[in-house]
Amino acid sequence: MTMTIRTALQHLLPGYTGLVWNALPLGRALATSAWLSVRGAPTAEPVKASDVSVRRSHSRPDQRADLATYLNLTDASDLLDSASEGLPPLYFLTWSLAPYLDLISSKELSLSLFGILHVQNDLIVHHAPGENDQVRSKVYVDRIHRDAGRSIISIACDSSVDGTLYTQMRTMLLAGTSTKLAPAPEPMRGNVTDPGWETIGHIPFAPDLGWRYGCLTGDLNPIHLHSMTSRLFGLERPIAHGFCVKASMAHALVRHLGGGRFESLRRLRVRFRAPVPLPSTAVCQIRDNNVRLLERHTGTIYITGRYKVQS
What we know:
CATH class: Alpha Beta
Shape: globular
Strand order of the largest sheet: 1-3-4-5-2-7-10-9-8-6
CATH architecture: Roll
Mean pLDDT: 77
Helix content: 25-40%
CATH topology: Thiol Ester Dehydrase, Chain A
Low-confidence stretches: 1-49, 57-61
């Protein structure tokens, strides 16, 4: 019986295969970022970064294992054997991350990847990719603005199958030119027991979630891994990945409003109001197509947004 390199890694390093498999693009991206941090970013507006893309087939032997791991990390293990015809709405990010990192680490952008933060994200789903679809993801810079030693970048990621557009995503990122994060505004707070909001789930974020999600996707930003590394950026505790948190919210919506079918989610637009510390448990609530995620005791609002789900 023959065994692929990745299958062998799964036997030797269970749960850490994604780390090894994605190490090369991630390592190059972080090395580039470190060099740019040392030499400083140019003051002039950079030229437009090149588009990057990747084509990925889902008919791989380890696809089911990867999907099960992803759903476990995003509070949706119960949906693995659901009646869904498509993949989870944000799952494509596990394979489009490599070109995503390749783009934001390009010399034209001159960004520091250390401590980069998500500001907002908008996902539109025209069709849900299936497990055997040949998906092409194209990542490119939509807009960029530089001000006072920081950059605000809008990154687009369009995924298609056989030339048909399936998903569109726009992500706004905040990046500095050093290892210092921008000062955080005072957190918004809400009333968890407000009768105007319906609670659709309590989402747990485990202490090692940042490390485990990073191993799967290759996103090992130090702010997600451990308190020792997150403190370098002024964070007392590591924080959850923005895409991981959003996926957990998406799965709560799919479970509560879409009959557990991934393809029921058509749009989810969110703004990240405060980082989700690890560990923690958050409450997901909805009202009139609005959704929010907040801390269950203090009411600190982590995310606000709007959604469209077809039942």
